[in-house]
Design a protein that fits this description.
449 residues, alpha/beta, Rossmann fold, Transcription Regulator spoIIAA, OB fold (Dihydrolipoamide Acetyltransferase, E2P), binds S-adenosyl-L-homocysteine, binds iron/sulfur cluster, binds FE3-S4 cluster
Amino acid sequence: MEKAGAAYKVHIETFGCQMNEYDTELVRSLLKAKGFAFTEDRECADVVLMNTCAIREHAHNKVYGHLADLKALKRQRKLVIGVLGCMAQNLKEELTETVPIVDVLAGPDSYRRLPDLLTGAIAAQEKGDVQRGIAVDLSEYETYQDIMPEQATGITAWIAVMRGCDNFCTFCVVPYTRGRERSRAPQGIIREVEHLAAQGYKQITLLGQNVNSYRFEDWDFARLITAVADVPGIERVRFTSPHPKDFPPALLDAVAGHPRICKHIHLPLQVGNDRILRLMGRTYSRKEYLDLVEDIRRRRDDIALTTDIICGFCTETEEEFLDTYLTVQEVGYHAAFIFKYSERKNTIAARKYQDDVSERIKSNRVTRLVELQKAISLRKNRSMIGQTVRVLVEGDAKKSSDQWMGRTDTNITAVWEKRDAGTHPGDFTPIKISHVSATTVFGDELPAR
Ligand code: SAH
Ligand code: SF4
Ligand code: F3S
C-alpha cells in the first residue's frame, strides 16, 4: 500500500447533521488507507480538518470561530488546515480568500482527492511554501459505495444509502452543497449491513438527505429498509431524514409491521400554513400532511413522530405562524427541532423573497414554540411513568459514568443507575420508568426476562 501520509497526525472536527458524521468516518477510512494517523488532540495534530455545515448562519459562525483559534496555532508552528463539507462546497474560493490560513477545501463529493490534496499541502509547507488544494466538483454518481467507513461505537452504525437532494425547497442550501440525488446499489448496502451484523452491531440507521426518495432500478425505500431489517443479527433499523412527499403505503406498512423497524418517524413539517408551505416549495399542504399523520396513526398509534420547524420565513405573519403553532399542538410530536429562518446564499428564497421578519419576531416565535413543545414532550414522557420499556444500552450517560444511557424503540433517551455488573453496551434491557424530564426518561433496570 502507498504510504503517502505516513506519520502525519490528523485531527477532525465535525459539525452539522448525521450525514456529516458519517462522511467524517468515510474520510478517516480514506486517509487511513493512505497511511495517515489520527489524534483526538488538536494541539499535537499536523493537520486539522473541519467537516462543516452550511444550513444556518449559526453553523457558519461556529466554524469561523474555530478557524480564528487555529490562526493562533498556525502562527506558532507548522499546521495544515482543511475545510470539508457543505460550507466548503457552498463558499468555495471565497472561503480561502476570506480566511487565508485554509490550505485545503474539499466538498462532499470530492473526498477521494483529499489524501493527495493534503500530501501536496504538507510537502509545500515543509519547503516553506503554500499549496492550496481545492476540490469542489459535485458528482452525479459518487456514493462512496466501495468505502467502508470507520464506525465509532461498535453498536450503532450509519449507512448513507442515497446522497443529494433534488427538491430545492426555497430556503435550503442542501441541493447546492450536496448536489443531485443518487442512490447506492442495494446489494452493496446489504453486504455492508451483513458485515456490520457479523461484527456485533445491533442498530443501523439508513441515511440520506431525502432518504425515502431512495430508488435503484426496481428497488424503492420500502423494499430496501425491509431487506436491511431482515438481515440476521440486526435488531433495530432507523432512517433519517425523510420527506413527507415520499411515504407510499408500502413504506408505512413496513414501519408499522416489521418488528425490527423502529416505531419512530421524523416528519419535517417546516410550517403549518399553506401559503408559506407553497412559498417554501414543500409540495404538500397542511391537510395533506395531517392526512399522512392520520394514516400513520391509523396503522399504529404508538409510532413516535418528531419534526423540524422554521419560524419567521419571508413574509410570515403572526396569523400564519399561529397555524404552525396549532398544527404542532394538533399533531403532538414527541420532539421538535425548531429553527429561526436563516437566509442562505444561492437559495431561491435569497434570490426571490425578502427576509423581512425581524430577528426579534423570529426569536419570539421560536421561544413560544419551544415552550409549547416542551410541555407536549413532558406530557408524553409523563404518561410513560410506571411502564417498562426495552432499551438498547449505548454507553455511559453524558452526565455520569455511574449511569447508563440507552434508547427506546421510539428513540426516547433513557438513563438509569448502573447496578447489574452483567449489563454491557449493545444489550437490550428492560427499564421501569420512575421519573421523566421533557427530553429523558429515568428509571431502574429490571432483571432481563
Ligand atoms: N431533508 C430534510 C431536511 C434537512 S435540513 C427535509 O426535507 O425535511 C434539516 C432542517 O434544517 C430542515 O428540516 C429545516 O427545518 C432546517 N433548515 C434548513 N434550511 C434552513 C434555513 N435556511 N433556515 C432555518 N432552518 C433551516
Ligand atoms: Fe433541503 Fe428541502 Fe432537500 Fe430537505 S428536501 S434537504 S429541506 S431542499
Ligand atoms: Fe449541514 Fe450539509 Fe448536513 S448543510 S445539515 S452538513 S447536509
